[in-house]
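Hi support team,

I submitted a single chain yesterday and got back a structure, but I'm not sure I'm reading the token output correctly. Could someone confirm the output below corresponds to the sequence I sent? I've pasted both exactly as they appear in my results page.

Thanks,
R.
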Amino acid sequence: MTASAMRSSADNVSSNTDAVLRALADPQRRQMLRLVRNDEVPAGEIAAHFEITQQAVSQHLRVLKRAGLVSERREGTRRLYALRPEALEPVRAVLEEFWPAALDRLKLIVEANKENDQRG
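Hi R., thanks for writing in. Yes, this is the structure output for that exact sequence:
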């Protein structure tokens, strides 16, 4: 792969990560992701959980879809949405980049507490 192609690939990952982070910034979109995390859910059922217009719900779902966070499948006249957890991986990588030492310390504390619980 050429240096230019590698840069282009890195730029695509970076812009996708940015899109995911922007999509996650909105609390209503995060709630929508919670609603679809375990199963496909029709748009109308998603809308029923919010006190905003159907049009506003549709706009939020478009943002989530463009960011790659949800898949959309049509079934007759219904649109079914489901979480695409793999879209969160770049964000996880960014967070781990900033928190590796903290995560390592937390792991050591949890393991030490587990050992103490087993002894006592």
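A quick pointer for reading it: The chain has one domain: 3-119. Let us know if anything else looks off.

Best,
Support desk
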